[in-house]
Amino acid sequence: MGSDRIKQIKFELFMMKNFFSLLIGLILLNTANIKAQNNASPNIILIYMDDMGYGDLSCYGAVDIHTPVLDKMAAEGMRFTNFLTSQAVCSASRASLLTGCYANRIGISGALWPKSGVGLSLDETTIAELLKQKNYATAAFGKWHLGDVKGFLPKSHGFDEYYGIPYSNDMWPVWYDGTPAKQGTNKAGYPPLPLIEGDEKISTITTLDQQAQLTSTLTDKTISFIEKNKQHPFFVYLAHPMPHVPINASAAFKGKSKQGLYGDVIQEIDANVGRIIRKIEQLGLTKNTLIIFTSDNGPWFNFGNHAGNTGGLREGKGTSFEGGHRVPCIMWWKGVIPGGKVVNQLTSTIDVLPTIAALTHLKLPEKKIDGVSLWPLLQGDLTRSPRSEFYYYYRKNALEAVRKDNWKLVFEHPSRSYLNQSPGKDGFPGQAPENIMMPRALYDLRRDPGERHDVQNEFPEIVKILELIAEKARNELGDDLQKRIGSEVRTAATIVYK
Question: What CATH number was assigned to the domain covering residues 393-494?
Answer without folding.
Answer: 3.30.1120.10
